[in-house]
């Protein structure tokens, strides 16, 4: 039995994939905190309501002509968008605020841990149901 085919597990996996992609974007923002003219980015927020109503598959978006086509797995890459103009922009044009990025990273880690715990609880419930014959 593949748990990935069940609705709740599919949604939790999509959320965890989104959180992984967001972690990568936040890491890029932090890595470029001192790069002149770098503009911080973030992913479009994930909502279960949208995920339930979204029946189409996302396709990878090439942001550079040197990217290889088809290197992302099914489901594609969540679309990135520029972060709102923060209250602080460096004289060199960089708008990454490290404190803000660290807060996002912490929130992202907590959300990922929550999804992991939910996933474990669902698996435990399935095992209990199988063992009890119900």
UniProtKB/TrEMBL annotation:
Its main location: other. The keyword Membrane does not apply. Residues 21-39 form the Flagellar basal body rod protein N-terminal domain. GO terms for biological process: bacterial-type flagellum-dependent cell motility. Keywords: Bacterial flagellum, Cell projection, Cilium, Flagellum. Residues 54-93 are annotated as: Disordered. It is found in: Bacterial flagellum basal body. One of its GO terms (cellular component) is bacterial-type flagellum basal body, rod. Residues 78-87 have a biased composition (Basic and acidic residues). Belongs to the flagella basal body rod proteins family. NCBIfam families: FlgB (TIGR01396). The basal body constitutes a major portion of the flagellar organelle and consists of a number of rings mounted on a central rod. Structural component of flagellum, the bacterial motility apparatus. Part of the rod structure of flagellar basal body. This is Flagellar basal body rod protein FlgB. It comes from Azospirillum ramasamyi. The lineage of its organism: Bacteria, Pseudomonadati, Pseudomonadota, Alphaproteobacteria, Rhodospirillales.
């Amino acid at each position: 039995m593949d748990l990935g085919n069940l609705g709740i597990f599919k949604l939790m996996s999509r959320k965890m994939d989104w959180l992984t992609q967001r972690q990568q974007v936040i890491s890029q923002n932090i890595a470029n905190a001192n790069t002149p003219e770098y503009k911080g980015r973030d992913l479009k927020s994930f909502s279960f309501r949208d995920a339930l109503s979204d029946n189409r598959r996302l396709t990878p978006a090439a942001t550079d002509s040197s990217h290889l086509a088809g290197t992302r797995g099914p489901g594609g890459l969540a679309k990135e968008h520029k972060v709102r103009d923060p209250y602080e922009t460096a004289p060199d044009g960089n708008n990454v605020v490290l404190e803000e990025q660290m807060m996002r990273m912490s929130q992202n880690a907590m959300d990922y841990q929550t999804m992991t715990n939910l996933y474990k609880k669902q698996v435990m419930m399935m095992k209990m149901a199988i063992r009890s014959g119900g």
